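Please produce the structure of this protein holding fructose -6-phosphate.
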Amino acid sequence: MCGIVGYVGHRPAKDLLLEALQRLEYRGYDSAGLALLESDALYVEKRAGKVRDLAERLRDKSFRATVGLGHTRWATHGPPTDINAHPHSDEHRQIAVIHNGIIENYLPFKEELQRRGHQFASQTDSEVIAHLIEERYDGSNLFEAVRTVVQRLQGAYAIAVMARDNPNEIVVARQGSPLVVGLGQNETFAASDIPTLLSFTRQMLVLHDGEIAVLRRNSAEIYDFSGRKIERAPQQVDWDVLTAQKQGYKHFMLKEIHEQPQAVAHTLQGRYDLERGQILLPELEAFRSKIQNAKFIYLTAMGTAYYAALAAKYLWRELLDLPLTVEMASEFRYSKPYLNQETLVIAISQSGETADTLGAVRMARERGATVFSIVNVVGATLTRESDATLYTHAGPEIGVASTKAFLAQLAALDLLGLYIAQVRGKLSPSQTQEALSSLAQAPVLIEKLLQQEQQIVQLAQIFYQKEHFLFLGRDLLYPIALEGALKLKEISYIHAEGYAAGELKHGPIALIDPDMPTIVLVTKNSVYEKVLSNIQEVRARRGVVIAVTDDVQRELEHLADFILEVPAAARWVTPMLFAVPLQLFAYHVADLRGTDIDQPRNLAKSVTVE
Ligand code: F6R
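Below is the modeled complex.
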């Protein structure tokens, strides 16, 4: 929710900040702005619309500024207007602030400041920060002014601040929203994420909650909110810059769909020994006794990551002799969860910054549970809030609709389920070998599926003008039906419902007519016949059926209007394989409808508010 970037260095700040903002746009894109320190004056340009609109406005303007701040917004307090866009300033244009997060106690501050004569321009919570700092700033010590203000703020924030008469410093602070500092040659950066800075530097310092840093051209000093200095060595990030760019694909989403064989392969790589039939997760070794003594398991997440958890439920229950449930993280806290020292909580999140997931994890740990997280973004908040983290190695995911992170989560959940079973003595090496041999095939099978893209383009051409879709699946394909519907609605704005096929008769069947196509996921398993009956029910009501299947039999050929074939595989891999054609279908439908695929309306890549 909102992307922030700050720069103090030697290069022209305007172009550098606009470039960074383009990379941060996945975090929010309803308005954008820059603040530049230009000949002792604070120049602020901000407007509703995308970063490209801001760039257009600034195209012919040249600046000498080598210090500045940039922001791209996802509105929470106040609609997306020019005035509500960041940076925010006090009425004397002394201080400029950019903010990602929500200041929960902004209202009493605003009233208090107004009583003291401050004039507010915007409806945002963020503007109070600029006024509060301006009141405390003595013209020389910006750090102290910011430090005393952040101590009083409640809520979640990553902020960056600069002052008109201080051309050598930016002060940044973090509580609950992500913030990294990049160290270059005679230049220092701050941003909401690592990939944004990768083309400038690879030396990164990840700030933690409750930390504040003073950035100068040649240094970054970190302190806690009480003013105590913190020593932290920078880490060298070796992600490939190219993976954070489009590489000739029309959209990041399409590129990321095509990166799935690698995303799964990298997530599995080095984590098992096929010969000995063993899962190797050294990250979790210290928790063997917790795993052995566990009496209850929760899987918790939001959105696509939640569907990955739902798919894992079916596989884990076949393996483990433990009560296991999946809870949407936003509901976790209200559902009186069974939490104690014998509970394992597994939290799944691409970004590792999802507020609801963090909330669930914090509650679980407070109540004594052991928390393992599955996270894609290195150093994300969730990794620090967990007892241990299993990283998915999908690489940076830029498209707002999650694709490669989902398949990597499914692979990581497979490994984790097998590992828990191994530690609890539920699997013989030969059973593990069998599971692993099938898992090892996944990247090749996904690659094979991607070669059928043209067939999916043709289907998209037939159906892209429909306004409603139904997705049906049973057993471990039910969560994939949910994910298929989510992908379609997110990027094409088509109304799509995912249902357990057995639920069809209990209501949704009333919707079936020739204008509402049904995508049915059919796998060769114990529920095959039942799913065929569901298809019959749809056809009997003149519904159009697209079957996605790994078992084309004559009866299905006869029943379905269209068939998309996926390779047959073991249950460990089946959900991944069925997800791919649904992602491609959603992508091509959206492309034909001309929507903004990488940045769909109203969405943001990481949802850092509850
Ligand atoms: C859908 C999508 C979202 C996220 C959800 C959780 O395509 O991307 O539903 O899956 O917001 O995000 P993370 O995984 O970052 O916690």
